[in-house]
Amino acid sequence: MTTPSRALVLVDVQQQYFGGLLEIQYPPHAQSLPRITAAIDAATAAGIPIVVVQHSSGEGAPVFAPGTPEFELHPEIERRRAGTWKSIVKQYGSVYADTDLTRWLRGHDVDTVTLAGYMTNNCILGSAVEAEAIGFTTEILSDATGAINIANDAGSADARTVHTTLLALLNSNWASVGSTDSWIAALTAHRPLPGSDLGTSAAAGAALAGHL
To answer: I need a surface site. Which of 44, 45, 73, 211 has the fewest CB within 10 A?
Structure first.
C-alpha cells in the first residue's frame, strides 16, 4: 500500500460562515470547528503541509468582501496559523481554479489533498471534483465540513440531507470520506483514508433499495 504524501487544505473557515444567511447548519459549526482544529493539530504534529484558503467576492461585495470582519478567518484558525502555511485567496468554488495551488502542491510532492472547511455543497464539492482531472487524490473530513439549507426552482433540501447526500456521492467516486478521528488514525499509520468506488456503491445502493 502506497503511503500518501498529504497536504491539509483548510477551505474558507471564515467568519462569514459563523452567522447570518450563510451560517453553517449541519453539522453545526460548534461541532465541526473543533474537528477542523483537531485536524490542524494532527497535521502540525505530523509535519505535513497546511494550506489556508479564503474566498473573496471582491471589494464591496455583500459577502466575502476583503476588509470586512466576515472575510477574516475564524480566530481558532488564525491563532494556529504558522508562517509555514501556504495562504491562498480564491474567487471560484474550487481551490484550484485560478490559483497557484496545483503548482505549489506538486512542488511539495503532494499527491493527496485532505479537505476540511466549508461548504460541503459548494467549495468542498467543486474542489473534490476538479482534483480528479488534475491528478490529486482527495480526502474529505465528514465532521470537519458542513452545509446549509437550500431551496430554489429545482427543489429543496435541509442541510443534513445536503451534507450526507453529497458526501455519499463524493465517496462513491471522487474522494475518500471519513471522520477526523479516522483520518488522524490513517495519518499516524501512514495509510490512505479508506473510501468506496462507484461499482461498490451502486451494488450496495441496489441492495438497499431491494433490487438484489
So the answer is: 211
